[in-house]
Design a protein that fits this description.
Order of helices and strands: HEEHHHHHEHEEEHEHEHH
Radius of gyration: 23 Å
Largest sheet: 8 strands, mixed
Number of helices: 11
Shape: elongated
Bound molecules: magnesium ion
Strand order of the largest sheet: 1-8-7-2-3-6-5-4
Strand content: 5-15%
Helix content: 40-55%
Number of strands: 8
Length: 277
């Protein structure tokens, strides 16, 4: 059968469209809220990965919101000079971890997560956090799992605990939560899906850290998995307040108790009143 020039061109275009479709798309886009994601369009068998800090949850107290800013880091250095014990003893820092509030940034995300799980989509949380014992905690992954559970978040595979040895670190999958122990997320997600014999055609990931998104995107490219990344920009900022943070830190070291910003402000007002009497 002879094909005309026009038909050949049409055939070429059809083949091109098919080729583009089968070429697994890899994208990252910024979002301000989970509302920007069409969760209903996520197909069964896909894997959805939620980052934890500054994505699912965020602390509410000034020091913790600013922990990784230049002011927060400088304050920490100053604190270690005042209290050298803080350098080697995690006990006090673990009390702060335990007692400071870290609510969900967008509580309605739990509804979407449950719907995804019910429709055959796998959902996990993935954090770059350290693993293992820390101060008062037997294991950080267990602490984090319990905290997320208290907020009604539970990932898929919540009966599985998987210890991973990777490049001198100890990532763990703990009942729906993958903690990479400071390693890039891509290779650890790769090891996790191999260990569970998952063959997702699509991975959807929401994270405030662009490098982590990139790392999983690269892993997906290697494995011919479609990747849709969302760079989450919905976390909040708080202005630094040196007096408040200093009071909070001194109180924590002295009394082994974390006071919220709100409690500190009440204390400070009360003390000022006493002084002016
Ligand atoms: Mg994060």
């Amino acid at each position: 059968m002879l094909l005309g020039k026009k038909n050949i061109l049409s055939l070429f275009l059809i083949l091109l469209v098919c080729a583009c479709k089968s070429n697994h798309p890899q994208q990252i886009e910024p979002i301000q809220s989970f509302n920007a994601i069409d969760f209903n369009s996520i197909k069964p068998g896909s894997l959805v990965i939620f980052d934890v800090d500054e994505t699912l949850i965020q602390p509410v107290d000034t020091f913790l919101v600013n922990e990784h800013t230049p002011q927060g880091k400088a304050f920490r250095q100053k604190l270690i000079q005042t209290y050298p014990i803080l350098k080697s003893d995690n006990h006090i820092a673990s009390i702060m971890l335990q007692e400071a509030q870290r609510p969900l940034l967008e509580p309605n995300v739990i509804h979407h997560i449950n719907r995804l799980k019910n429709s055959g989509v796998f959902v996990i949380a993935c954090t770059g956090m350290n693993t293992g014992p820390y101060g008062i905690h037997n294991s950080l992954e267990e602490w984090r799992y319990n905290h997320l559970k208290s907020l009604d978040f539970e990932g898929s595979f919540n009966d599985i605990v998987l210890k991973i040895s990777y490049s001198g670190r100890n990532p763990v999958f703990y009942k729906g939560l993958l903690a990479t122990d400071l390693k890039p997320k891509g290779p650890i997600v790769g090891i996790f899906i191999d260990a569970l014999k998952l063959k997702p055609q699509n991975i959807i990931m929401i994270d405030d850290d662009y490098d982590y998104l990139l790392s999983v995107k690269n892993e997906c490219e290697k494995r011919n998995i479609s990747f849709q990344g969302y760079e989450y920009k919905g976390s909040k900022t708080l202005p630094w307040d040196e007096d408040l943070v200093q009071f909070q830190a001194d109180y924590l070291v002295k009394h082994k108790k974390w006071l919220s910003d709100k409690a500190v402000r009440t204390f400070m007002r009360f003390n000022r009143k006493k002084l002016s009497l």
